[in-house]
Amino acid sequence: MFVGWCLSWLFAFVAMRAKSVSSASMSAMLIMFPLTFLSNAFVPTETMPTAIRFFADNINPVSKAIAAVREILGNGTIGADFWLALAGSFVILAVFVPLTLLTYKRNA
């Protein structure tokens, strides 16, 4: 839930910068589509091509969150993926909370 809340700041920023509701929706889909489908949500990353596997394993915060949830539910333990997902979420917050608030102030 925390990762989703952090990503909502990204989408709030995108929505504030958009000219219309439909362009905001389309922009959000263009962001969420690769984050979801280029992750380990549907297939193991070992079956992916090298470049996509690198993105899914090392950059994509959705992959880290999914791996963390699988480890917690499957093994009952908190591993490295949990901490990486948390760190990635804080990076997203550190970048997009100020940008969103600044954009909101300028639009208000």
Automatic annotation (TrEMBL):
InterPro entries referenced in this protein's UniProt entry, alphabetically: ABC2_TM, Nod_factor_ABC_transporter
GO MF term (any one): ABC-type transporter activity
Pfam families recorded: ABC2_membrane (PF01061)
Keyword Transmembrane listed: yes
Location of the protein in the cell: Membrane
Domain of life: Bacteria
One GO CC term on file: membrane
Annotated membrane topology: Multi-pass membrane protein
Parts of the chain that traverse the membrane: 82-104
Keyword terms of this UniProt record: Membrane, Transmembrane, Transmembrane helix
Domain ABC-2 type transporter transmembrane: start-end pairs: 1-72
Protein name: ABC-2 type transporter
Organism expressing this protein natively: Sporobacter termitidis DSM 10068
